Amino acid sequence: MTARVYTIASGKGGTGKTTVTLNLGTALAMYGKKTIALDADIGMANLGLLLGLEKNKITLHEVLSGTAKIEEAIYEGPAGLKVVPSGLSLKGFQNSNPDALRQVMIKITEGMDFVLIDAPAGISKDGVIPLAVADKVILVVNPELASMADALKTKALTEMLGRTVEGVILNRAIFEKTEISSNKVSELLGLKVLEMIPEDPNVRRSAAFKVPIVIRSPKSPASIAFMRVAALLAGEKYKEINTKVDKDTFVDRLARSIFGGK
Ligand SMILES: Nc1ncnc2c1ncn2[C@@H]1O[C@H](COP(=O)(O)OP(=O)(O)OP(=O)(O)O)[C@@H](O)[C@H]1O
Ligand SMILES: [Mg+2]
Fold first, then answer.
1. Which of 16, 119, 162, 217 is most buried by a 10 A CB count?
2. Architecture of the CATH domain 4-259
3. For position 126, what pLDDT does the model report?
């Protein structure tokens, strides 16, 4: 059995691809699915940073430059999620050959249920290959016009590569009259909206603590949405999962006073 490979893309930068990759991956792992998240944003790597993995020397950079094996770049993440971070150095990026990702995919899919690829923004070569190696692409968009325009371009590019877009995750929804509604997004892009993830201050807070929001604040609105979309992809019934939540420490309270929220 080989894994289903989803590339999480957007076109526009900063829409929430890395956040979605991490939390969707963790949520799939929480549903008992063997899942691996890979940071294909080799120029602006962020996935490892969200988990505190940045000190590790072997990353996807070393694999794509032929100096390490993919097995050496796989790390344990939360809830059994496996993670392949990219490195932070510019030199590592320059030495990486994006084409080598095709070979990596052959190995990485073995024995897994899901592979999630965090794609870079834009449509340069290192952004095109993650689209080309996907079974399906998921577009992360924000409810604003610039995000729609770039998502439309990414959809067209995906189709030119002979791949299909599974649907859209509409992230950072604030449910204001001025924002583009889910129906309108679906109509504009000609795609199904898989889920709406609300704007949620716990997202930033959990990033600061290097723990995915679905683990750190499982009852927060964004976590519930992440669990729902994971259930949809996994073919599971959505269920609230009881996870151990850290005690309310001084640092938690300090974070709340800085970032706001309940
Ligand atoms: N639902 C949300 N609510 C609040 N903040 C969010 C939400 N989703 C993402 N963010 C914040 O938005 C910022 C961008 O998110 P993220 O890094 O996941 O985007 P990205 O698409 O991967 O960006 P890039 O194109 O630079 O790789 C981060 O600071 C993140 O914490
Ligand atoms: Mg990112």
1. 119
2. 3-Layer(aba) Sandwich (3.40)
3. 87
